[in-house]
Amino acid sequence: MEEENNKKITIADVAKLAGVSKGTVDRVLHDRGGVSRKSMEKIRQVIDELGYEPNVYASMLAMRKEHVIACILPDSIKDDYWYLVREGFEKGGENIASMNIRTRIFLYDQYSPESFRKAGMQLLESNPSGVVLPPFFKNDTYTLANALSLRGIPYVYVDSKLEDDGHFAYYGMPMYKSGYLCARLLTLRVPQKQLKGVLVVRIIRDKMRQSDPTLNRRSGFLDYMAEYYPSCGIHNLFIDPQAPKDTERQLNTFFKAHPGIRHIVMFNSRVHLLSDYLSRNPDPDRVVVGFDNLEKNISALSSGLVSVLICQHTDLQSYNAVMALSDYIIKHKRPERKDNFMHMDILTSLNIDNY
Amino acid sequence: MEEENNKKITIADVAKLAGVSKGTVDRVLHDRGGVSRKSMEKIRQVIDELGYEPNVYASMLAMRKEHVIACILPDSIKDDYWYLVREGFEKGGENIASMNIRTRIFLYDQYSPESFRKAGMQLLESNPSGVVLPPFFKNDTYTLANALSLRGIPYVYVDSKLEDDGHFAYYGMPMYKSGYLCARLLTLRVPQKQLKGVLVVRIIRDKMRQSDPTLNRRSGFLDYMAEYYPSCGIHNLFIDPQAPKDTERQLNTFFKAHPGIRHIVMFNSRVHLLSDYLSRNPDPDRVVVGFDNLEKNISALSSGLVSVLICQHTDLQSYNAVMALSDYIIKHKRPERKDNFMHMDILTSLNIDNY
DNA sequence: TTTATTTTCGTGCACGTGCACGAAAAATTT
DNA sequence: AAATTTTTCGTGCACGTGCACGAAAATAAA
Predict the structure, then answer these.
(1) Protein chain A, residues 23-82, with a C-beta closer than 7 Å to any atom of nucleic acid strand D
(2) A37-61 burial, b if ≥16 CB within 10 A, otherwise e?
(3) Residue B239 pLDDT > 50
(4) A84: closest CA among A304, A293, A337?
(5) What is the DSSP code string of B67-83?
(6) What does the pLDDT read at residue B5?
(7) C-alpha closest to that of A76 among A134, A139, A146, A131
(8) d(C-alpha B310, C-alpha B183), whole Å
């Protein structure tokens, strides 16, 4: 459409054709004010007449500001769920390092809202050009989001998302659907009358975190079961991640009481907590479905203890978030879609390579 | 590790500390010769002493050359396999357009090696800075790859790969494994004695293309079947994509002769060719497994005609290829791994969204 | 009309690198 | 030693944009 004939159009070209100086063109390009209505209109017209597009390189070179993309995260051990988020963020950081955009991570204690607020303050002080924001404590996340909005700093939700429309983008998983899919994979090709019952293993957690996305997943799961296996019993077992011994004992007693049940599911990312029990009580007909590609889960999958993992490329979420922000910083481009739901990947022992 | 204290190190800094001019530093940075051994060593030393890293923006700004990334592709109709490759390539193109790197596609007729050679010549004439190269005609692809090597132009294989180590990178699928996985998904939770037989639908194709990657997939499939269902019969049916009527008739006669068979598989990307027959002869117990996320396949999946699709994110392959090449052009960085095998995605009707 | 104030705009340098041109230094030939 | 060739190197401009400084023009106040 535009004339591709030769050279790129520069600010100087626009200036000449509009009969002003490049300084003035620059002013309208950046809405910096101090331009008469008449010149502005003329310049605007010339700009899209020529199809002017700014030169990213020259722009970044001239603009000395050092950009920082920040992320606030629970201080997690390795191979935790949040560690995946972190890895993706850092991967993105490496990618844009040569673009002169730095990344910074602000950690907090996931059992202390106080520490979250503190980390949030530090994040604000670092004056970032963009923020990756996985919601944890609902209210405090709101507060932080508002503070960012106020300063005109774009923030991207990952993992889950608050009811807030001021965000720059969102990368996460369709939680409800993932539960639905989970139920399907758990019961695939199992006739109705043959399904004796299902065990849902859950975690005793303190209620600090006001919003737990896996609850939606649970709804999806229960809805599927109600639809296709209405008479199937759903048993809940609450375990404590800190006490593996107890877990194994609890499972033992449960299965002694319900020998017919061979379908197990966990809605959070810690299905690997069952590994000990499962490996000590092998059963070829058992089906175990879990979530998320933690290393421990992956190895449980490849050793056959877990049948299927449903993954959401947790690391890709934060990676995409970083890239979207850097694209905005560099090219002033927004992502195609504001809310991006990741694909649900089905992992079995046969396709875990190259994930 | 390096001192982050303040400013970025520039060529001028290096020059001063090495006691030379920036021109000389530039010469060693680009291996342009004309530098005495002594100065060179000194400069090299200073460079990694200071941890100098070139400024991408300044570099690209100063270097006026217009970069082109090219791709050579079969001239395909929409919703063909190659169309996915093309989409990914173009997507990558949009992404780097603002970086002043253009993309160009050279099309050829997939039934004419002659046209491939012609397109290859044109590609060379366009003097690209990088090439995305899906092998088709084996020998001619070799010839082209050699020509590129000779000119120092990096080329990236996608889809499949020749036995050639001069390539810059490779993005493709583990074909053998995908066949293995396919067999598993086809027979999942089916007891040995219950499996009456399997139908493999294949395509009569002219043998122009000397290398057909789906043959590897077939081996993987057969190996799995031989291992887990040694007595299961594998039937082959050859159809002509140009003659849908014949296809339907062939399928009808086949299933009249083998009423017990309900497991169907296709190794190429055209499982949608079976849609007509399948929709006219519904059978809830039938299992159909195919490959690749063509639009037509996707809709066959979501309408329940096809049970499972194994996908390799064909578009991501060429997309990644473009990004890898642009990263090399801009930042002189090579991808982490030379040969990259894509993940095999398992698609069912429940997780086709957001793919 | 003159002066003060505000609005509008032009000029010019800086950003860090690539590269051409030609000068200086070293090596070779005469 | 002088002249010539080759090697080595320094200088300076260009790339396109951002922004500060101050000048010019327009407007308001005297």
Answers:
(1) 23, 26, 29-30, 52, 54-55, 58-59, 61-63, 65
(2) eebbebbeebbeebebeebbbeebb
(3) yes
(4) A293
(5) EEEEEEEE---TTSHHH
(6) 45
(7) A134
(8) 11
Query: According to DSSP H, which parts of chain A are helical?
Result: 11-18, 22-29, 37-50, 56-62, 81-97, 113-125, 138-150, 175-187, 214-228, 244-257, 275-280, 295-302, 314-331
Are B57 and A58 a contacting pair at CB < 8 A? Answer: yes
User: Residue A199 carries which DSSP code?
Assistant: E
Q: Is the pLDDT of residue B346 over 50?
A: yes
**What does the pLDDT read at residue B192?**
87
Q: Please answer whether residues B216 and B159 qualify as being in contact, where contact means their C-beta atoms are separated by less than 8 angstroms.
A: no
B203's enclosing H/E stretch is strand B197-203
Backbone angles phi, psi at B234, to 5 degrees: -110, 115
Distance between CA atoms of A306 and A185, rounded to whole angstroms? 12
Average pLDDT of the residues of chain A: 92
Residue B332 near chain A (CB below 8 Å): no
- When mean pLDDT is compared across A5-9, B182-186, B225-229, the lowest value belongs to A5-9
- Residue contact B343–A354, C-beta within 8 A: yes
Alpha-carbon distance of B202 to B234, in angstroms, equals 12
CB-based contact B184:A308 (threshold 8 Å):
no
Q: What is the pLDDT of residues A245-282, one digit of tens each?
A: 999 999 999 999 999 999 999 999 999 999 999 999 99
Interchain contact, A353 vs B341, CB within 8 Å: yes
Asked if residue B269 has pLDDT above 70, the reply is yes
Inter-residue contact A268 to A182 (CB < 8 Å): no
- Measured between CA atoms, how close is A35 to chain B, in angstroms? 28
pLDDT more than 70, % of chain B? 96
* Burial classification of residue A192, based on how many CB atoms lie within 10 Å of its CB (0-12 exposed, 13-18 middle, 19 or more buried): exposed
If we measure between CA atoms, which residue out of B35, B33, B28 comes closest to residue B54?
B28
pLDDT tens readout for residues B187-216: 988 888 889 999 999 998 766 666 688 999
Residues 6 or more apart whose Cβ sits within 8 Å of residue B239: B201, B202, B203, B204, B246, B247, B250, B273
Query: Which has the closest alpha carbon to A288: A314, A266, A270, A268?
Result: A266
- CB contacts < 8 A (A, B): 94
B147 interfaces chain A, CB cutoff of 8 Å: no
pTM (2 d.p.): 0.90
Query: Which candidate in B331, B339, B346 is best for mutational testing of the A interface (most A CBs within 10 A)?
Result: B346
For an interface test with A, the pick among B87, B91, B98 (most A C-beta atoms closer than 10 Å) comes out as B98
Place of tokens 């699709």: B309
Distance CA(B219)–CA(B44), nearest Å, equals 52
How far is residue B345's CA from residue B293's CA, in Å, rounded to a whole number?
10
Q: What is the DSSP string of A56-105?
A: HHHHHHH--PPEEEEEEEE---TTSHHHHHHHHHHHHHHHHHTTTEEEEE
d(CA B153, CA B56): 21
Nearest residue (Cα to C1') for D10? B21
Name residue A45's amino acid. Answer: Q
